[in-house]
Structures are given as C-alpha cells and as structure tokens.
Amino acid sequence: MTIDAGPLIADAPAREIADRVHIIPDGRVPLVPSPGFVVGDEAVLVIDTGMGPRNGERVLAEARRLAAGRRLYLTLTHFHPEHAFGAQAFAGEATIIYNQSQADELAEKGAEFLEMFRGFGPGVTACLEDVELVDPDITYGDFAVLDLGGVTAELRHHGHAHTHGDQTVYIREPGVLFTGDLVETRLFPILPDDHAHGSAWIGVLDHLAELRPAVVVPGHGGVGGAELITAIRDYLVDVRGRVSDRRANGEELAAFQEPLAAAVRADYADWEAEEWIAPALERFFLESDDGPR
Questions:
Q1: What is the pLDDT of residues 54-90, one digit of tens each?
Q2: What does the DSSP assignment read for 24-52?
Q3: 57 touches 131 (CB < 8 A)
Q4: Are 169 and 177 in contact (CB under 8 A)?
Q5: Residue 94: how many CB atoms within 10 A of its CB?
Q6: Directed axis angle between helix 277-287 and helix 227-248, to 10°?
C-alpha cells in the first residue's frame, strides 16, 4: 500500500446522525476513520482520533465546540494508527479510556505499527511526524458503561478478532453502534498474520447483530444499518467455507490462493481494498489447523 496524499480528516463540522450522536464522515478517504462524538448533558465522549497530531487536533477542536465547556472523554476502537495515533492531542484535555487488552497491544505493537505505516507513502509519513503514543487514564476489562448525562455509552471489549483489543461503543438509546474495523462498508476486511482471527471475528459479528442497532458507524466507509454487519459476516463465512472446501480436497494454500482470490474479487466486484483477500485466505487456512474457537 502506498498513499501519496495525506489521510486527513475533513475540516468540516460534525454531522448529527442520531439524537446526541455526531460523526465527521471519512469521505471514503483511505486510512481516514469517521470520528464520533456522543454529546451528553455533562460530558462528551470522542471515539477515534485519526492519524497523527494534526488529525488529533482537528478532532479535539470539534469536540470542544460540541462540548461547550463540558468534560471530555476519549476512547478508541482499536490501537491501529489511523484510529488511535492522534490521541496525544487529548492528553490533559480529556479522560482517556482503553480496555486493558487494547492498552497492552498498544504498548507491545505501537512502535512497530508506527514504523510500518511510515512506509505507506509521504502523505502518511507527514501525518505521523512527532507522534507520541499515549497511555490511558483509565482501563477496564471487557465491559464498561460511561454516563455522560442523559445518555450512556457502553464500551465492550470483544477479544481477538481484527485485533486483540477490539472495542465497540454502543449508544443503546438511540441505537447507534461504533464498530471500528470489525465492520467496514464495501471494503475487504483486514486479517493480517496473527493480529486477527477470522472465526472469532465471525462470532463477534454474530453478537453485534443480536444488538439490532438502528445505525452502524463502521471503521471505514459510509454509515448504514445492521445490514453492514451482515455483509461482513457473510463475506467471512463465505471465504472460510471456500478455504475449508479446498483443504478438504487436500489442496495446499500455494496451489489455490491466487485463483481463489481472483474468484472472490469477481464475486465482490463493488468492494475495495482487494489486496486483503489473499491474506484472509491464508488466515483461514492457518486457522483450520487450530481447531474450533
């Protein structure tokens, strides 16, 4: 992946997508998330910062505007740079909350991902200048409820799926779910190496579907409803099934990965980021040796 233009969050006011819930849409710009803002009577929760100090400052400015002097909280859907590496702008300005697995993963892998992303092109490198990795003020285990005054946010850790520390944020009333990269709109999901686990991811999506959210804010791509969850789940089940069929026939990954990736690409012609099809095939191939999970 090489990206010449900087992955910058739009310099525009956040858009209200439900009562008390706002986002800055990503505009389908690569490596740009849709930062969220949940506006309570007493505090405002910010969800994701974008990549690097410039994006973090942009999100902080919008948070201050919406908060109008109220207390700020910041949480992140996962530790990846395009979602989390603008957090330094919030240090001392907000109470920062991660789940413990996310905090551990940031400490273990943050520097590695910083260097990896700097290889994605001059625009990304520029965004990552002067990045400082930020520890949380508060950590939790698997579930926490944040009362913002008149509205609550449910923070949940889902275990090893896209990352080890994936977190969703659910605003039960009015039914808005922030999924991070567990769900993306018309983008092939990323299952790189041992950072992800495809079958566990399917299980997480089954749980998210049970919430029946009215609005889903994906990690990347346009906002939608619960059908976004179904689309990613069905894709992962489809890919897992195709790999299982090949393994059952005694085929090795090297023999079928390229032609099968081409077939998947053809069947999901309107999806983007096709470079992540082949890694998904490999991940499910390797998981088939792990046993059920």
A1: 999 999 999 999 999 999 999 999 999 999 999 999 9
A2: ---TT-TT----EEEE-SSEEEEE---SH
A3: no
A4: yes
A5: 23
A6: 60
Q: Is 93 in contact with 44 (CB distance < 8 Å)?
A: no
**Token output for 275:** 């470079």
Per the listing, tokens 């400052």 go with 57
Q: Is the overall model pTM greater than 0.85, yes or no?
A: yes
d(CA 197, CA 235): 14
Q: 185 phi and psi, to 5 degrees?
A: -95, 115
The residue count for the chain? 293
Contact indicator for 19, 174 with CB cutoff of 8 Å: yes
* CA gap 223, 261 in Å, rounded: 27
d(CA 49, CA 88): 9
Each residue of 53-78: b (16+ CB within 10 Å) or e? bbbbbbbbebbeebbeebebbbbbbb
Cβ 204 vs Cβ 142: under 8 Å: no
The pLDDT tens digits of the residues spanning 22-47 come to: 999 999 999 999 999 999 999 999 99
Sheet holding 167-171, edge to edge: 143-147, 152-157, 167-171, 176-180, 215-218
Q: Encoding tokens for residue 285? A: 């191939």
The CA angle 292-240-155, to the nearest 5 degrees, is: 70
Residues 146-199 pLDDT 10s = 999 999 999 999 989 999 999 999 999 999 999 999 999 999 999 977 789 999
Residue 282: which of 246, 249, 243, 250 has the closest Cα? 243
| Structural element, H or E, at residue 96 | strand 95-99
Provide φ and ψ at 110, rounded to 5°.
Answer: -55, -50
118 strand-pairing partners: none
